[in-house]
Amino acid sequence: MTIKKPTITEVILRDGQQSLIATRMKTEDMIPILKDMDKVGYSSVEVWGGATYDCCLRYLDENPWDRLKVFKKSFKNTKLQMLLRGKNLVGYRQFDDSVIEFFIQNSIKYGINIFRIFDALNDINNIESSIKFVKKGKENAQGTICYTTSPVHNERYWIKLAKDIEDIGATSLAIKDMAGLLRPRTCYELVKKLKKNLNIPIHLHTHSTTGLSDATNFKAYEAGIDNIDTSISSFSNLYAHTATESFISMMYSEEKNPFDMKLLTKISEYFNEVRKKYKKYEGSMRGVDVNMLINQVPGGMLSILEKQLLDLNKADKLKLLIDEIPKIRKDVGYVPLVTPSSQIVGAQALMNVLDDQRYKTLNKEFIDMVNGKYGKIPGDICPKLKKKIDKASKNIDIDDDVQNLEFYKNEFKEFCSDNQLKKISKNPTDLLNFILFPKEAKDFYLHKNKSTLNDIIGLQEGFGLYVD
């Protein structure tokens, strides 16, 4: 029997560089190779979302919408894909539907074709509105299951969740294995069952952290997966993904390979040189991390916490911190560790370790998560912890910061008037920067040089981390 070959999504421009160099790659380092990437024959390239939006404003002195304009201008034959955190969009808090629709409308206008929409807790209510608005814009609304393992996450759970995602209108389904936990045989069985139960295409995204990704991707191929995410070889493996060229070579014999391997080599060699510029952002990982299968702490999350301990002169507490994270995860009903739940659990673990006492100090975000503000918790909350949370909740002022679009428009107009920024006051993408990351956006517009990227790409102003 001939197995259908899956199409390939290239992730170097988003998750490949996010996983390996902390999302620090500048747009100017992407531009020279984009037209070559457009010739490869990828089904899509993941170019935006995740931590890229945040990092453009926070670290790179770039407007993320200018980056998207570059991609739209360069990719004439390849669909553009982004990662969207459901109601959180590309931020860390939930937004009103009016803001969600406005963001999606503009993302489509500026070039996004495929929206991979996920929720950290796999709460379907947190992705439903995004799917609706993407469908309204006639683009691909890809609903996502964030894969993890626990006593409550079994095959029946995943099949039901996937079916629910299809039922609310998703165009396609993604299995998002952000920590590399999906084992090859498990993947084969899961994909087989999903193909039997669903009528929409199924995509697989897995990471190399545990050393399983090559085998897992290949078993998904054997099971009939429709699309696989890979990263060009010079930005592959470790915290990242299976190498694009390697996976192609697994599927095709040399004489039947439809891909131009010389072109892929050119792209890989280009990014190999680019990577040298960002060496200081590389993580400490040098091989496979099998401990991930036990403690489930994603590499990106661990590297951030490790840096925080170093800054506090508490590097000796790292082992305690790693051991604490899965304990907290159990206490809070086995939440998957992906943005923003990974940051919330990680911050609470850090407090527990620094206090030398569990839950002596409770972060507001942790309290909110346990209280259901971020969505439905998959398992049961530890009764002892719930008692502490209930007591702490009484001392917290209720602050409903989910405002509608009109509220933010008025705030932005006032900010622009006070700071002589009239030229951006009516620009929808500048408004979105302000809504999503107010502090970073204010700093960007008031103090940073915005001309460099526009000069490079020849565009005019106003043209009409992270574990993801």
From TrEMBL:
From the broadest rank down, the organism's phylogenetic lineage runs: Bacteria, Pseudomonadati, Pseudomonadota, Gammaproteobacteria, SAR86 cluster
Q: Is Transcription regulation one of the keywords? A: no
- Keywords (A to Z) from UniProt: Pyruvate
Coiled-coil annotation reads none
The record's Gene Ontology biological-process terms are: gluconeogenesis
Residues in the signal sequence: none
SUPFAM superfamilies cross-referenced by the UniProt entry? Aldolase (SSF51569), post-HMGL domain-like (SSF89000)
Span of domain Pyruvate carboxyltransferase: 6-265
User: Which Pfam family is an annotated match for this chain, by its short name?
Assistant: HMGL-like
**Species assigned in the record:** SAR86 cluster bacterium SAR86A
Q: Which InterPro entries match?
A: Aldolase_TIM (IPR013785), Carboxylase_cons_dom (IPR003379), PCB-like (IPR055268), PYR_CT (IPR000891)
GO annotation, cellular component aspect: cytoplasm
Q: Which Gene3D superfamilies match?
A: Aldolase class I
Q: Which Gene Ontology molecular-function terms are recorded?
A: pyruvate carboxylase activity
What name does UniProt use for this protein?
Pyruvate carboxylase subunit B
